[in-house]
Amino acid sequence: MWGSLGEREERSAAEYRSRERRQAPMSEVSVAPSAAEPLLRVRGLAKHFPVRTGFRGQSLVRAVDGLDFDVRPGETLGLVGESGCGKTTTGRMLVRLLEPTAGTIEFEGRDITHAGRRQLRPLRQDLQIIFQDPYASLNPRHTVGRIIAMPLQVNGIEPPGGVKARVQELLEIVGLNPEHYNRYPHEFSGGQRQRIGIARALALRPKLIVADEPVSALDVSIQAQVVNLLRQLQRDLELAFVFIAHDLAVVRHFCQRVAVMYLGKIVEIGDRVDIYERPQHPYTRALLSAIPDVTKLGPGGRIRLTGDVPTPLDPPSGCRFRTRCWKAQEICATEEPALVSRGGGQAIACHFPESGPVAGESGGTAGVTVEEVSK
Ligand SMILES: Nc1ncnc2c1ncn2[C@@H]1O[C@H](COP(=O)(O)OP(=O)(O)OP(=O)(O)O)[C@@H](O)[C@H]1O
After folding, report:
1. CA–CA gap between residue 201 and residue 219 (Å, rounded)
2. Handedness of CA 81, 82, 86, 89 (dihedral sign)
3. Which of 77, 135, 291, 336 is the most buried (most CB within 10 A)?
4. pLDDT of 359
5. Ligand 1 proximity of 264 Cβ (cutoff 6 Å)
């Protein structure tokens, strides 16, 4: 299912990359930061939305509540978690479509947290976003040529061979027929429309793309094709990605590092292998056990989390996951665990970390069912 791209796409992407290098004027070629230096550095990032409650009352939705993470050049970081945990809000802050309430965002060492419109202009070239819904994110009245050319025109960029040639080249890179330049979005399938969105994101040769659930609106068979395309582009163009998804199976195929979010916080972040094979946080373990084909969880069972995620208007004290955690005890309500370094990443210093089998364990307080499953 996750096979390689078609020959034409592979060739196109490789040609694009070499052409990009030849064509880029010297002034546009920025010095790549050293491998040790993050492209993106996020510290204490928070977004609290004020909302009306009751009669003249106001409260804060703590959608994102203090995130720390880095993304290195060419790296893919997956941001996963259940619906409502703050993934989209995070992604929109990273590309500055939303103003953060607190914290800092640095891109290549520059603080862009509160960058104004003028400062954002060059940044828009380096930082792009692909939206979840290919149906809603393309203007139905514009041809694909115009849609893909838009970022070039808005930024006043005249590619060496002209805009049309550039757009056709981008269409080819994403595996679409360059002859379809004058067609409208409704003439394309869902997967093809997402390819158009990807071509638009690539138009300015970004260094980092925030992909917000880029395949979740697509049929499963098409999802694989689009993820393979992104993977190929990531390798060939050395792009960094923040890949937002609730589907851990997709993230496993695409991301080198993974951050697991719960109620506006990261509970565990680390290399893919650590997260998928040696999860330490009970929530990570529960999410992983929901993947139907997971085979490398070690001993244990399937964990079915029940009950709703608590409201971000009034998150639980201490560990936010405690109201659904089968291991929770008194200390979890009073002491918030911190993220601590672990191998290539960080895990939350859970008071009762995952270390062995969970099947058959009893105790805990919350709405969780631990089922034995045969391996
Ligand atoms: N403009 C807003 N005003 C008030 N609350 C908001 C606003 N935008 C998002 N929220 C709330 O912030 C929380 C996080 O939302 P967000 O969309 O970031 O989550 P998510 O993890 O991306 O979810 P999904 O996977 O469903 O898109 C949710 O409780 C949501 O209702």
Report:
1. 22
2. positive
3. 77
4. 33
5. no
Residue with tokens 């056990």: 289
The minimum-distance atom of ligand 1 relative to the CA of 81 is 21
Cβ atoms of 368 and 325 within 8 Å: the answer is yes
Bridge partners (DSSP) listed for residue 71:
40
Residues 261-285 pLDDT 10s: 999 999 999 999 989 988 888 899 8
What is the predicted pLDDT for the residue at 289? 85
Treating both helix axes as pointing N-terminal to C-terminal, what angle do 7-23 and 163-173 enclose, rounded to 10 degrees? Answer: 140
| CA distance linking residue 15 with residue 227, whole number of Å | 20
Q: Which residues of the chain have pLDDT under 50?
A: 1-14, 16-34, 296-299, 356-375
- Could you tell me if 76 and 234 are in contact, meaning their C-beta atoms sit under 8 angstroms apart? yes
Spatial distance between the Cα atoms of 57 and 54, rounded to a whole number of angstroms:
5
Is residue 10 classed exposed, middle or buried when 0-12, 13-18 and 19+ CB atoms within 10 A define those classes? middle
Ligand 1 closest atom vs CA 312 = 29
Distance 90 CA to ligand 1 centre (A): 10
Name all domains of the chain by residue range, CATH numbers in brackets: 7-254 (3.40.50.300), 282-371 (no CATH)
Alpha-carbon span 302 to 294, nearest angstrom: 10
Q: What pLDDT was estimated at residue 374?
A: 30
Element containing residue 366 per DSSP (H, E) = none
Question: What ipTM was estimated for this complex?
Answer: 0.97
**pTM: predicted TM-score of the whole model, two decimal places:** 0.82
Residue 35 is predicted with a pLDDT of 54
How many whole angstroms separate alpha carbon 225 and alpha carbon 242? 19
